[in-house]
Design brief:
The complex is a heterodimer of chains A (183) and B (453).
Chain A lengths: L6 H7 L3 H22 L6 H17 L9 H20 L17 E2 L2 H16 L5 H10 L4 H8 L3 H21 L5
Helix pairs in contact in A: 1-2, 2-3, 2-4, 3-4, 6-8, 7-8
Chain B lengths: L2 E2 H6 L21 H23 L1 H18 L7 H9 L15 E6 L5 E10 L3 E10 L12 E3 L20 E6 L5 E12 L6 E8 L8 E22 L8 H11 L3 H4 E5 L4 E21 L7 E5 L12 E9 L2 E9 H7 L3 H6 L13 E4 L4 E6 L4 E5 L6 E11 L3 H7 L20 E6 L2 E5 L1
Antiparallel strand pairs in B: 2-11, 3-4, 4-8, 5-9, 6-7, 6-9, 7-8, 9-11, 10-11, 12-13, 13-14, 14-18, 15-16, 15-19, 16-18, 17-18, 19-20
Classes of the chains: A mainly alpha (183), B alpha+beta (453).
Chain lengths: 183, 453
Amino acid sequence: MIKLKDKLVHKLKKHDEKAFEKIMDQYSNLVSVIINNVTKGNLTKEDIEETVADVFVTLWKNADKVQEGKLKGYICTIARTRALNKVATYSSKTVFNIDDYDPEDNFSIEDETEKKDISRELREIINIIGQPDKDIIIRYYYYSQTVSQIANDMGIKLETTKSKLKRTREKIKTNLIERGYSL
Amino acid sequence: MKTTLKEAFYRIDDDLINLKNDNFSEKIDIDISKIKADVFSQLDTESKKKISGKKTTKKLTIMLIAAVLFVVMAAGTIYAFDSIQQAFKEFFGGNMNSAGFYNGRDVTFTSPDPNLNVQVLGVTGDEQRVYAVLEVTHKDGTAITEEGYNEPYWWTDDFSNMTENETVWDYYGCTASYTDKNDNTVNYASIVDYSLSEDRKSLKLLFMILSKENDLQDTTLSVVSESFGARKICEVLDEKVNKDDEYDIDKIEKRQNELGIDNNNQCSQIYNGDKYQFCYIDHKKFELPFEISFKLNISNENNITKPLTSSEAPNFITSNAKEVEMEITSFGINFYGKCDLEVYENCHWTPFEKSTNDLCYEHIDVHNSKLIMNNGTEYYLYHYPGGNEGVVEDGKNSYYEENIVLTLLTPTSAPRELELSDTPAQPSEPKIHLIDTREIKTIIINGDVVYGK
């Protein structure tokens, strides 16, 4: 399968500034949305712009680590990490406004070995979840969107989105328990 | 410490995150051009620091040698106008006058390869930028590259093994640096173009040095080379006329399978002047180990200077500008603006805003700004490269100064050169044009006529 689009990553690895600019043009909005979501809308426009710039500086410095076909995921990971760092910086003076529906994230994993495996397990489980439930849970947990935003973007009623999210979470939990995780 | 489901999701980093309906209605009001400027500014600053640290010892040695030679050779300036002009004509379009052509002084050259010969063909520039052309040949007259490898390019090694202590500059085959009279790296020099003769016996390299100090006299350009690249177009797999047309993917893939080649590493798009071609290309590194340094000494002739006010150019010069001087050179137009310190201080700009905002000038509208020659040739005026800004301490008369630099681009070349990155041997910078300042008819910026005979 020819992957012409991966040329962008190939060029990024070669530190091609034009390719890097294209990447910034293409992903700046997505990165800003992730930063805004992760920080619950508590950053100013200037803070968001500064954090977006940090994300791309980090990307440039780590260009060699980007795998072809996985640029978006890599950028999103940096964006989330940078946003969380920003949150940590401001946590002493920021009160987060969590006024949207927040399903109870009441299961957790303590064992270190299990932590390493859970992402792989989760990937397998998510792959067997149908649409639109899959997009809903990815948007909620990965992109840190609120339920209202998800409902709006996907054109689904708010209450439906909430119930689907809750059901999918239960499904994931059940699957993880079946796979031997003690939750 | 417990890992929540949310944290587990954060570790998903592959195509799972590609949503079926990739729609995000949230729009954060961000300025992407500002972000890009910030990113490049950060990277630029870091790379400069790293370059500076890397070669200090080497440059110090070269500078000491150059300093000794300077005493011996100070009177030995040799001008060979025709040959110097010819060297630059290969790279610059338009007609040039004799502004600042110089053959480089106090040249020191070393190479472990006794067959390698490197000459400084010429130096030219104005107060804001300097260009130098070097020619690399073999003393025995043999070709620099193997047969078929006709397209040179700036070679970089694979960055994937880069360690924390290394920078990308450690992986470039040929790098240049620029030191001031005090052996400080005050700004950077870079290769902006290169050409290989048809017989592959002569490789010419064009370097550009940007000055933020407005003083390039007797400074030194040092070039350290280990290798240069060249590529051979083995086969055109498909071609298209327009950029937005689609390649025949099936045809390309079929041929790639037949050839047993990897799309990402051995194929790329090139632009041959009238069509885009997706080609199977072989890249090869050619060893060119040498170090060369020489002094820059630029004198300008036929520059035109003139004051400009906001009433003369209301769409370009702001009312903040107390004084603006326009300097027209063969390389473009430089503006030196001053405004009251109070005006600047009232802006309360951050360092980033200071580097991106202008107090004395409105944003240059490229499509509404032109330089027109007597023969009718028109050039775009592009805000690039160079310029600086800052508070000038002058006793009670301290002021804020802003310099900007406009470069000339031809109407046909500008859109393409600003857009394309896949042209063979295409430099990352736009192609720059030089002009004979005596032949300028009119200069229009943002619709205002700022110069006219």
